[in-house]
Design a protein that fits this description.
CATH architecture: Alpha Horseshoe
Helix content: 55-70%
CATH class: Mainly Alpha
CATH superfamily: Tetratricopeptide repeat domain
Order of helices and strands: HHHHHHHHH
CATH topology: Serine Threonine Protein Phosphatase 5, Tetratricopeptide repeat
Structural class: mainly alpha
Oligomer: single chain
Distance between the termini: 27 Å
Strand content: under 5%
Number of helices: 9
Length: 175
């Protein structure tokens, strides 16, 4: 699965329609094909072309949260953080119970150097799934940016016990 590295932890599993059962069932075959094509292009680092696919998917199916989430991830990759945040917000309005969208919106706010807003959003996502390691890592980053290093370190450690793969991201945070 392709990982997006921005020094932030995007919830990359969101990108895979198979990771969200039923996420694209309501979408037409054309929209599903556009999302799949966009994912392939993103994996090949062809982010502008991927964004084009996700843009088309959101026009054809504006009610499919996964299309908006992927659009947001593509926008993050081309460093249009404010537009990415708008896409993630739209995805949250469409699917408010999906913790991935909150995690990714938190990543966008962190990229925009807005840790206070990131913290608010990440806490909402953690109410949905308190053991979602990517959100714990991003919350730790927000706390770290706010000068709350001890709290951040405890969250990094908690995330690592839940999902040892997050240790790769821990290296970039509080040691």
């Amino acid at each position: 699965m392709p990982r997006m590295r921005l020094g932030l932890f995007l919830a990359a599993a969101l990108l895979l329609p198979s990771a969200v059962p039923g996420a694209v069932k309501t979408a037409s075959r054309e929209v599903r094909a556009l999302i799949e094509k966009g994912l392939k292009l993103a994996a090949e680092q062809r982010h502008w072309e991927a964004l084009n696919c996700f843009d088309k998917a959101t026009v054809l199916a504006p009610g499919v949260a996964l299309a908006w989430s992927n659009r947001g991830s593509a926008l993050m990759n081309v460093k249009y953080y404010d537009k990415a945040a708008e896409s993630y917000q739209r995805a949250i309005r469409l699917d408010p119970k999906d913790p991935y969208n909150y995690c990714n919106l938190g990543s966008a706010y962190l990229a925009m150097k807005n840790p206070k807003e990131a913290l608010k959003v990440l806490e909402k996502g953690l109410k949905i799934n308190p053991r979602f390691a990517p959100s714990l890592v991003n919350k730790a980053r927000a706390l770290e940016a706010l000068g709350r290093g001890r709290e951040a370190k405890a969250l990094y450690e908690k995330a690592a016990t839940i999902d040892p793969r997050v240790m790769e991201y821990f290296k970039h945070g509080v040691e």
